[in-house]
Amino acid sequence: MQTIKDLLIEEMRDTYSSETQILEGLGAMAEAATSPNLKQAFQTHRQETANQVERLKQAFEHLGADPDGNTCEATQGLIAEAEEVMEEGLPSELLDVALVMAAQKVEHYEIASYGSLKTIAQDCGESEVAVLLGQTLEEEKATDEKLTRLAETEINKTAVAASPSA
User: Entry's Gene3D superfamilies (predicted)?
Assistant: First the structure.
């Protein structure tokens, strides 16, 4: 890497790897979720993620670069944590709370990544790439907000109601 554009491409490859890993993870999380609303949220975001992968491919085409070549170790770790939660045998109410937490960890990582990538693309004069990255950034923020609302209005309340008094 010699230029900021090289860094942009390298970090976009990391994000591409992240998104492809998340596609797989969201399917497992949707299956594990017991709340119908949480299942639906994961399924909806899985479709959004597929669209985000396509959007990243468009950005790479615009830059004349290949999306392959990196493995996002941070996402590997976040998905491994989610898999551990799914294998712990938690009561369904607690599992849903833990799944929301795991998903929001991923969303926050993605928000940070897309925010930085969008800024770098703008600074490099890659306005078309910045627009594509910005679209995904807004989707990631919306997903995070949806998960927060779901936790506050349903998931956490159900878990509290099911928990024995201390």
Answer: 1.20.1260.10
